[in-house]
Amino acid sequence: MKKNISSFLIIWITWILLTGININELIVGFIVSALLSYVISNLIDYEFSFNSIPKIIKFLVVYIPVFLFELIKANLDVAYRVLSPSMPINPGFVRIPTKIKSEYGRLTLANSITLTPGTLTVDVSEDSVYIHWIDVKGNNNEDYQKNVSASFEKILGGIFN
Fold it and tell me: Are 35 and 135 in contact (CB under 8 A)?
């Protein structure tokens, strides 16, 4: 029951945020959210805790802006490389150590790295993320981490560990 209610609230709040506050939209959103939460909670086995609400808020308020900033920086860097073919590149595969122990945390880190242009996550292990990087900067794993994932990992570690 707790799973159903939490699913309903998340779906309905998302609906309201996307459609606005209008009585017709609220009613339709309520019905659609109720049906979707029933289907989702019966098909997917997960547990939602109301204790995780501060983590969700931290993810939305702190992590998303940092991710968007890094995304814009990476887009500009790759665009500059495309428009300036003489600019040297140094592609390669690197291992980036991570202290994130949660599977969801490592998944979020890997997806964040992949979504930023110029990097592609190839593999994830218990303590490392392996990526292909368009311009490898640094000489060791700690340098790679500082240049690619440090800003992500600092926040994600506080959310998922």
Answer: no
